[in-house]
């Protein structure tokens, strides 16, 4: 397994500064969050890092009841797929849609839109030679795919793999053993108290990362473990912690 670092902790540095920091920290991969401001993507060619891409999150709802918003959201995620192709990345992390307050009576239709949108994006990614990996969401009002069973079901229906966010799953009450599935093709790691998705450094909360890693090894997972925390200091501590667990 390789160690990756999300750009979440390093914003608003320039991309070049972020990649320099991540490479100097000894990580193998960088997960670029495709959000404003991203400057001079060509600098990525100057680094030895491998890349994954996190599709945009802000102002996005691929399951919206509003067709214009839904189609615009799909278009923006397709742009993230295009970026992944430029970076030779095989992974594009995608958040599911959300159920707004006034959309609650129409939840079934929103769930249908979510699946249809993921299908469209998945086909686009496959045609371009990469793949999308929908992510499970934490205990928050609105997001779909908070339950891992729903995530596995989408993966099976679309014949794709998914992103397991272990910290998100912990807020939903899943044990470390319940988090692992053969459908997992990408992993996000941060820590919390099991209730709030606080994106703490690994080892600062209640998650048993040794159990998670052993479970992933048990299914033959050989992908990236992406550290997704809030500050550079938390990244450094998480990488050190993770190396000890992997070894």
UniProtKB/TrEMBL annotation:
<keyword id="KW-0413">Isomerase</keyword>
<dbReference type="Pfam" id="PF01261">
    <property type="entry name" value="AP_endonuc_2"/>
</dbReference>
<feature type="domain" description="Xylose isomerase-like TIM barrel">
    <location>
        <begin position="21"/>
        <end position="244"/>
    </location>
</feature>
<dbReference type="InterPro" id="IPR013022">
    <property type="entry name" value="Xyl_isomerase-like_TIM-brl"/>
</dbReference>
<dbReference type="InterPro" id="IPR036237">
    <property type="entry name" value="Xyl_isomerase-like_sf"/>
</dbReference>
<dbReference type="GO" id="GO:0016853">
    <property type="term" value="F:isomerase activity"/>
</dbReference>
<dbReference type="InterPro" id="IPR050312">
    <property type="entry name" value="IolE/XylAMocC-like"/>
</dbReference>
<protein>
    <submittedName>
        <fullName>Predicted sugar phosphate isomerase / epimerase</fullName>
    </submittedName>
</protein>
């Amino acid at each position: 397994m390789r160690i990756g670092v999300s750009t979440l902790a390093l914003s608003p540095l320039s991309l070049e500064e972020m990649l320099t920091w991540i490479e100097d920290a000894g990580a193998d991969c960088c997960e670029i969050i495709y959000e404003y401001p991203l400057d001079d993507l060509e600098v990525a060619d100057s680094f030895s890092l491998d890349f994954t891409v996190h599709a945009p999150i802000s102002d996005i709802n691929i399951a919206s009841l509003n067709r214009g918003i839904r189609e615009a959201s799909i278009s923006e995620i397709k742009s993230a797929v295009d970026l992944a192709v430029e970076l030779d990345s095989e992974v594009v992390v995608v958040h599911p849609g959300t159920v707004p307050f006034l959309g609650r009576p129409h939840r079934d239709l929103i769930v249908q839109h979510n699946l249809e949108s993921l299908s469209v994006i998945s086909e686009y990614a496959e045609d371009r030679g990469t793949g999308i990996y929908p992510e499970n969401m934490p205990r928050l009002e609105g997001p779909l795919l908070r339950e891992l069973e729903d995530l596995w079901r989408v993966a099976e229906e679309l014949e794709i793999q998914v992103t397991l966010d272990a910290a998100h799953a912990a807020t939903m009450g899943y044990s470390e053993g319940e988090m692992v599935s053969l459908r997992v093709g990408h992993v996000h790691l941060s820590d919390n108290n099991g209730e709030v998705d606080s994106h703490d450094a690994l080892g600062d909360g209640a998650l048993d990362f040794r159990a998670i890693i052993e479970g992933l090894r048990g299914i033959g997972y050989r992908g990236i473990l992406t550290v997704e925390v809030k500050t550079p200091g938390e990244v450094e501590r998480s990488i050190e912690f993770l190396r000890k667990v992997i070894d």
